[in-house]
Amino acid sequence: MALDGLIHLIxxxxxxxxxxxxxxxxxxxxxxxxxxxxxxxxxxFLKLFRLNKQCAHNLINMLxxxxxPSQRVTxxxxxxxxxxxxHFLGHxxxxxxxxxGYSATGSQPVISRNIAEVTDIMTTHFLNEWIKFPTSxxxxxxxxxxxxxxxxxxxxxxxxxxxxxxxIMAPPANHPIYPGAVYYCRKKIYAINTQIICNxxxxxxxxxxxxxxxxxxxxxxxxxGIRRYLQQIYVLNNQENYLLxxxxxxxxxxxxxxxxxxxxxxxESRFNTALSQxxxxxxxxxxxxxxxxxxLHGHRALNYNPIRAAKIIYTSSILHNMCITYxxxxxxxxxxxxxxxxxxxxxxxxxxxxxxxxxxxxxxxVETYFN
Length: 371
Description:
By secondary structure, the protein is of the alpha/beta class. Helices cover 51% and strands 9% of the residues.
């Protein structure tokens, strides 16, 4: 009889614990689903989600038609799924930490599905809409004017190009498509080497996150569709539209780079100084992107395979452009993390077929503005 009584007490206690767990989950789900992050103060909202409220409203309206409807009782509402992803992108937290954050309650698998859903939609439907290299005369001239205001010598600049390494976790060494070894770069980290082109206002005009960290900037550039486009309009239309790059890129008529080791106080050194000042725009763009969306920060690593990591990079870049378009302030963070910046001093091998054309344009600028 005593044993039967003990078993009965155990059953009753287990049943009580199970009911309490169910009640707790229901309460958490109710608090989650009825919470409204838009009621937060503007400063806290910006700090948590990295976008201002206008930008967040527009993003939710953009994504909602493409997202899976919240049909089941346990399904997280669409707007909270989006906020959970924004929190992850902005802070680089582990998925479990994001899942238990304010206004973003959810399990790790739920957060993982949210990240996959949102980044898939963003890259499929909005990448080409929000990140576009200029092809119309109107846009090209507007970008040229933006750079000419900063330095009148560079009146035909249509963008500044640079590569930045986004750190990822090491892929499997024996993976048949993306083996870990090729992602190990000279900085002794596993990374994706991401090519970015920006305008004078730090808007991203082009981004390519398809190459592993061991691939050099110049090699990525040689395969770039932007290079083929600029080459085509130079050859067919004789238009001098060029990008600015560092010494890691080849000198071409559509890509101007610094002189190698010029003497001090010469026209060539003054050209280099002016070019370097303009090139700070791409450094600031990379720094702003990584400080706003700190999942890309050099002090962290994306714990995803390279394909998903690339989609996270593209999604963050789209949001970066949205923030600039809607004048979202830069969040004030307490930790003051600074992006890890590396200066690539490896000179690229010039293609002699195009070197002379690039040298001629560069020399004309030097003779006109720096003598």
